[in-house]
Each structure stands twice: as structure tokens, then as C-alpha cells.
Amino acid sequence: MRKKYTANEHKQKINDVLYYIFENLSSKLTIEELAIVSSYSPYHFQRIFKENVGQSVIEYIKELRLQWSANLLIFNPNSTVTEISYHCGFKSSATFTNEFKKFYDCTPTKWRKEGYEAYKLKQIDNKNEIDFSQIKIKKLDSIPIAYMRHFGYDKTISNTWQKFLYLLEKDFDNKDPEMLGFHHSNPTITQLDKCRYVACAKIKENQHIEAKGEIGLCNIEGGLYATIQHKGTYSDVLQLYTKIYHEWLPSSEFEAISSKAYTIYYKNHFTQEDGKFDLEFRIPVTYK
């Protein structure tokens, strides 16, 4: 029993660290700082982090920053390479260029001009058309959520949703919550088995839910969002993601400010036997 309890403790503390990293990716992050967040010694923190995440904390942070910068180079054409490098937490543009070239086999400047098109993964079938006239710009309030992480974008996300909803009901008597999903990775430049997805449930006023094991707590930031309601089946979500980011956004008067795109599920295909969804897709934006 104690071993299981300790494993849940580790998951909860590493969850706290992952959220802290995500919220502070632009800042200098040290092992000592993250160890304090986890309440472990630096040595034990690094060991437990790798056991739970599957890679070292240094590699994890670097990969997140490089993926973030790769997106900004595509979606924010008015930002310079140097501005993006500092915004993504690199200490110098030279360091950024060196690490980017090792990861993508291409310099940031070349990536922006032509390298992205050559690198782009052919794993999304964009045959469906999206009516961009249905996109609405909304100023939205922050949303308090409970969440559970899933690594990889595939149909096993259904298992994570099943576990998440079961634990919410068992431990907190939370039945039929309003469901949301975070899409942290761009599927055109990230292999689907490495994409980061987060199953989320809105916490209502006067509702008690606490961080426990794999369940974490945070707030979805309020602000300006481009939103669109859409219906479809499983793979249509990724098509929607790529169409909005790669076709609508570059031709609009907006640019992306982070990778925190999320969905509000009116019907969640990961919990429905027919695999169909009805959702509102939201991406945070700012005026160019």
C-alpha cells in the first residue's frame, strides 16, 4: 500500500513540475529551482522525473522550447529569430541556432523560409474543407480545471479519459463534468506518438477537487481567442488544428501567442462509442 501511495505522490509532484515548466518556459529554469517545486533533493528529483516522464528534465525542457520556437517561426512572421530565441528561453541566439539545427537539421532562418515545408510530416490528411467565415474572435475568462496528461495522440486517449472520469467520480463525487482537451503539440512537425494531449474537466464554483496522483489542477488563461465550432470524427480534430494554424492564421490579422490551443467538448469522441465529436476549438491570439 505504501509503495502505491509513494508512486502517486511522485506523479503528483512531477505533475506540479511539468505545469511549472510549461508556465515558465521563457525563463531560466534550473535543476535546483525545479527540485524545490517538487520538494525533492536535486538528485532524487532528476531520477524521479526521468522515471515518470521517460527523459531527463534537461532534454524535456530543451525539446519543449525547440518545438515552441519551431511553431513561432512559422506562425509569427513579424518576430525576428533573435526575439523568438529569447522568448522561448534560450540564453543566446547562437545557442538557439545550434540546438535548433541539431534537432531539425536546419537553421531557424532556413526553417522559416523553406525548411518547414521540407520537414513537414505527412501524417495528417487535410482533405476536408473548413469554413473560416465561422471563426469568431472572443475575449474569454480564465477557466479553473482538473487535468490528466496523455503522451501521444491516438485512440488510447480514450483510456486516459475513462480513468480520469472514474477517479473524478470516485474521489471527488464529480459526475458528468464539462470536458475540455489541451493540444500542446503541432502534429505537422511532431510525430503523433510524441504529441502531448491533456484531458481536462472544468471545476465549478463551490466544487472541491484537489491534486492527487495523476490528477493536477490549473487555470486556462483568459484572453483573446480565435474560436470555431466543428463536428466530425477522430482524425478530423487534427485536420482542424492544421487548417486553422497553417491556413487561416497566416492570412489573418492575428498571430499565435502560445501553443495552448484547447477544445470545449459538447460531445467528446474519446468517450463516445460512435467516435463522433461536437466541439469548440480555441487558440489564443493577439493582433499583429
Please describe what this structure looks like.
It is a single chain. The chain is an alpha+beta fold. It contains nine helices and nine strands. The protein has helices at 2-23, 31-38, 42-53, 57-75, 81-87, 93-104, 108-119, 157-172, 236-251; strands spanning 136-140, 143-151, 179-183, 196-202, 216-220, 223-233, 254-256, 261-267, 276-287. Strands 1, 2, 3, 4, 5, 6, 7, 8 and 9 form a nine-stranded antiparallel beta sheet that branches. A hairpin with an 8-residue loop joins strand 8 (261-267) and strand 9 (276-287). Helix 1 (2-23) packs across helix 2 (31-38). The longest helix is centred in the N-terminal third of the chain and has 22 residues, at 2-23.
List the defining traits of the structure above:
288 residues; alpha+beta; Arc Repressor Mutant, subunit A; Multidrug-efflux Transporter 1 Regulator Bmrr, Chain A; 2 domains; 9 helices; globular
Number of domains: 2
In CATH terms, what is the architecture of the largest domain? Alpha-Beta Barrel
Mean pLDDT: 92
Q: If you compute it from the alpha carbons, what radius of gyration comes out, rounded to the nearest whole angstrom?
A: 19 Å
Content-based structural category: alpha+beta
Superfamily (CATH H level) name of the largest domain: Regulatory factor, effector binding domain
SSE succession: HHHHHHHEEHEEEEHEEE
Task: Classify the beta-strand content into a percent band.
Answer: 15-25%
Q: Briefly, what CATH class of the largest domain?
A: Alpha Beta
Q: What percent of the residues sit in helical stretches (DSSP H or I)? A: 40-55%
Distance between the termini: 55 Å
**Number of helix segments?**
9
CATH topology term of the largest domain: Multidrug-efflux Transporter 1 Regulator Bmrr, Chain A
Sheet having the most strands: 9 strands, antiparallel
Oligomerization = single chain
Poorly predicted parts: none
Number of strands: 9
User: Tell me, what's the shape?
Assistant: globular
